[in-house]
C-alpha cells in the first residue's frame, strides 16, 4: 500500500530538477514484486451543488499567498499515505475520488519552493469546483487556540483544576458512562456532582479560564518558568451544553454588554468562589483534557484530521458533506483578514456548529491577537474545492461538460 503511494510521490524528484514544472508522469513499478492492476475507479458524480470551474474564476488567484496552505496540505498528504489507496478519500463525499487519485497532487506539491511554484503546480494537477449552497446559506467564522496562565499546584487565584480524563469514564458511543467501584455503570454525572466529588488535574488555572477552556475545547497553558503545555480535548460527560452567560444575564448579574470572556471573568472576581461555582454549574456539560507537549509553537493543536492546524492555512468544515485534507479556495471578508480576502485553506478540522455546504471556520492561530482577529470573522463568502484532474476527468466522462454540471438532456 505505502509503496504504491510512494511510487507516485517519487515524481517530486523529477519536478524539483526542472526550472519549469514538468508534466506529471506516473512511475510504474517494475521487477518481480509488481503489484496487480487496481480495479477501475467508479466514475464519481458531483452533487447538484458542485460546479466545475476554472482557475481564472478564482478571485485574485494570481496574487494570493499559498505558503501556509501548501504546508498544511503536505501534512494532509502524510495522512493519506497511511490509507488504503483503493479506498474513497471520504465515504461522505465519494465525489472526491479515491486515495490513489491524490498521490499525484501530493507528489507535485511536495516540489513547491515558492508561491509561484505552487500556483503553477496546482493549475497543472487540480480543477477547482465551486460549491453553490442549495439553501443559499454561506457563512465563514474564525477560531483560535487560546493561551492561559497556569500553575502546577493550586496557587490563588489559579485554583481550578484543568480536569484530566478520568479512569472511570466509558465513552459508550457518545453517551458516556461512569464505572462505579462495584463494577456497575451509570450515566456520567453532571458538572455539579463532578466538581463536588473532585477531579484529577493536569494543571491549575483561574476558574474563569478553565470554564472557557472547556467551552473552547483546547488551549495552551503557560507556566511561570516559561514552559508550556497543551490541554487537548479528551472527552465530555455527555450532558447538553447550557449557556452560563445567558443565566448571568437573565438573573441580572451581568448586562448583555458584559457577556464576553473578559466581562464574565470580571464578574467572577467580584462574586467570589461560591457564587462563581453556582454560575458554572448552570452548564451541566463538563470537558476533560489530555496533557500534550506543545510541539512546534507556530502550529496549533491537532484538528479532526489528526494533523496540527496551520494559522490561516487550515479550516474546519462540515465533514458530512466535505472530505478532510483537501485544498479549498475561499473568498470572504473580515476586519481580522484586512477586509476583503481571498485565500487557500485546507479542510483539516470540523465542529458541532459547522454545518452546511458553504460553511467554514478559519483557524487564525494561538494567543490573544489571534483571538481578536478570529472574533471579527463572521461573514458570507464563496467556496471552491480543488479536485485532482483525474477525478474531474472521470466526472466529465460521465456526461458532464465544462462548467455546466447538469446531466445532458435525454
What does this structure look like?
The protein is of the alpha+beta class and about 400 residues long. The protein folds into three domains: about 1-30 and about 55-125 and about 385-395, no CATH class; about 140-145 and about 300-385, Beta Barrel (Barwin-like endoglucanases); about 145-290, Ribosomal Protein L25, Chain P (Beta Barrel), CATH 2.40.240.50. It is about 25% helix and about 25% strand. The protein contains twelve helices and 18 strands. A nine-stranded mixed beta sheet has the order 1-2-18-14-15-13-16-3-17. A six-stranded mixed beta sheet has the order 5-9-4-10-11-12, covered by helices on one side. A three-stranded antiparallel beta sheet has the order 6-7-8, with no helix packed on it. It starts with a helix and ends in a 13-residue tail after the last helix. It is an enzyme of class 4 (lyase). InterPro entries: 3D_dom, MltA, MltA_B, RlpA-like_sf. Keywords: Cell wall biogenesis/degradation, Lyase, Signal.
